[in-house]
Write a structure and sequence with these properties.
Its EC number is 1.3.1.88. One of its GO terms (biological process) is tRNA dihydrouridine synthesis. The chain is α/β, with parallel strands linked by helices and 538 residues long. Among the domains are: 31 residues, no CATH class; 214 residues, TIM Barrel (Alpha-Beta Barrel). It has an eight-stranded parallel beta barrel, surrounded by six helices. Helix 15 crosses helix 16. The longest helix has 21 residues. It is globular, with a radius of gyration of 24 Å. The termini are far apart. The N terminus and C terminus are likely disordered.
């Protein structure tokens, strides 16, 4: 007779040696076996000594910064974490294959900007040489003309702002709490995904960092299953991979979870599944791997949980709701995802993060109420309004405060970029670092650059290409508005809500009857209507 004591090692051996299986029933059986071996089912009183669940280990983050290509850079992440109540940050997406292919060292250096928390904190306080973080010619170029005194001035301003936000008068008494980071990858090959993830963990010193509840440099690896851009279809990642090749998607996730260290979380960022109407209209391309058509919300949640993911982020839109067809985030469907995942997993607190539809701080609380999600992730909204997660942050009610706030974001980010120049990422080996900075400035100052086309042109045509030149541009912009009173500012287009960067695709009520992949002519028509409306406002 086989006892439980003899059975458990046998089951463990089977699970370790078995190939990933993708039949829902088989995956459910594997999940049940793992549950049998968990801490909830100890053998002869022998407790499972595995670390606490991933989400709890991160202190249950509520406010999350999304992964954004060339925008989730180190200086922006630190600014949001240290000043604006972001609890968890995701890096920009890293192409797994490019990260491990022959001759990939330059790609690795240009993209992976995750360092031990002690180093970034010491650099900020001046106790560690920041030169260790300047590893590309692009960063050096962005810093052109900045001397030691300007660096120290930027450091002093940052520390003073942080101290003030905490009610501390003496900067020497300031202590900065570090926040966890998740690295997002794009991959469709399980082996490539695992190899890239292991290299990321090794290079960031995260392989064996779990100790007494401390979070390591990289807390988790996220698989990009949400990108709706056409380039994602070509690269077989993002929402295209999940919608059209779900079997491959789950192979990647299962392999990641089975190989990566248990203290490293495996997460997935997804979109809502397409509908049968999308399939009938031919919007999904080849779906030969889906015999019965697109997945339902319940099916999608079950498969993800059976893969062993530790956390799921749901963008409340399908991949067809993008740019001018962006539509309103479907929080009701996100709530269905939350309920489905928690019911199927048997975990009433299984972490689901809601993404989409967050413009102001008040939207965060609305989202929690309508979705019952564990946390809220912001992407586009936080790029223009980094403080939207800050407690008590309300929509600005005066034009002068709005101007001061947006200029303040730009100046503060330039200070962070001075101490921690962003890596170039995918934006070019020469000017890529400043292109990251440039992109942030366009978002912080969007409504005011629209009123000052000469400055917008200077920034856009790369006539401004260093941090020092950027400061001059921001200073000039400030000078142009400094003598205007509240009444004059309210008469300007920049005071209109529709002039914000967040609403650039949302300022028109012209939306397709059904979110779809529009033809070229349809896109041209939508653009003409948007331009016509903008001219009318002017």
């Amino acid at each position: 007779m086989i006892t439980r004591r003899k059975l458990c090692p046998l089951i463990s051996s089977i699970l370790e040696k078995s190939q990933p299986c993708f039949c829902w029933r088989a995956m459910k059986q594997q999940r049940m076996l793992r549950t049998y071996l968990s801490a909830e089912n100890p053998i002869n009183g022998e407790a499972n000594l595995s670390p606490p669940k991933f989400y709890q280990r991160l202190n249950c983050p509520k406010n999350i910064l999304a992964p954004m290509v060339a925008q989730s850079d180190l200086p922006f992440r630190l600014m949001c974490e240290q000043l604006y109540n972001v609890d968890l940050s995701y890096t920009q997406m890293i192409h797994a294959y490019n990260f491990i292919k022959p001759g990939c060292e330059t790609f690795r250096t240009n993209h992976l900007d995750v360092y031990p928390h002690s180093i970034t904190t010491d650099v900020l306080f001046g106790n560690h040489d920041r030169e260790d973080l300047i590893v590309t010619p692009s960063q050096i170029y962005a810093m052109k003309g900045i001397d030691h005194h300007e660096i120290e001035a930027a450091r002093s301003r940052i520390l003073s702002v942080i101290a003030k936000s905490k009610g501390i008068h003496d900067v020497s008494e300031l202590k900065i709490n570090t926040k966890p980071t998740v690295v997002q990858i794009a991959a469709h090959d399980p082996d490539v995904a695992v190899e890239a993830a292991m290299v990321i963990l090794e290079r960031s010193g995260s392989m064996n960092s779990y100790n007494n509840g401390d979070t390591c440099t990289v807390a988790g690896i996220d698989l990009n299953l949400g990108c709706p851009q056409s380039i994602a279809r070509k690269g077989r990642y993002g929402s295209f991979l999940h919608d059209e090749h779900p079997d491959l998607t789950y192979k990647v996730l299962q392999k990641l979870r089975s190989v990566l260290p248990q203290h490293i979380g495996v997460t997935a960022k997804i979109r809502l599944p397409p509908t049968q109407a999308d399939a009938d209209a031919g919007r999904l391309g080849s779906i030969s791997s889906l015999e019965s058509g697109p997945q339902t919300i319940d099916e999608r949640m079950r498969c993800l949980i059976d893969c062993g993911v530790d956390l799921i982020t749901v963008h409340g839109r399908t991949r067809f709701e993008n740019k001018v067809a962006v539509g309103v985030a479907d929080w009701e469907s996100v709530r269905q995802c939350v309920e489905s995942a928690r019911t199927y997993s048997g975990d009433a607190n299984f972490p689901i993060i809601s993404n989409g539809g967050i413009e102001f701080g008040e939207d965060v609380q609305k989202c929690f109420g309508e979705t019952n999600a564990s946390g809220v992730m912001s992407s586009e909204g936080i790029l223009e309004l980094p403080s939207l997660f800050r407690s008590g942050e309300e929509e600005i009610i005066t034009a002068k405060l709005l101007l001061e706030r947006q200029l303040g974001f730009a100046e503060l980010y330039l200070d962070y970029a001075t101490i921690f120049p962003p890596l170039p990422g995918s934006l070019g080996t020469k000017g890529g670092s400043f292109n990251v900075i440039r992109s942030h400035l366009f978002k912080f100052l969007h409504r005011y650059l629209e009123e000052n086309p000469d400055l917008r042109s200077l920034l856009g045509k790369q006539e401004v290409n260093t941090i020092k030149q950027s400061r001059d541009l921001v200073s000039e912009l400030k000078t142009r508005y400094c003598n205007l009173d509240e009444e004059q500012l309210r008469m300007m287009k920049s005071w209109d809500k529709e002039s914000s960067w967040y609403r650039r695709h949302r300022g028109t009520n012209i939306q397709p009857a059904r979110p779809s992949e529009m033809s070229l002519e349809e896109r041209k028509h939508m653009m003409k209507m948007r331009l016509r409306k903008r001219q009318t406002i002017v």
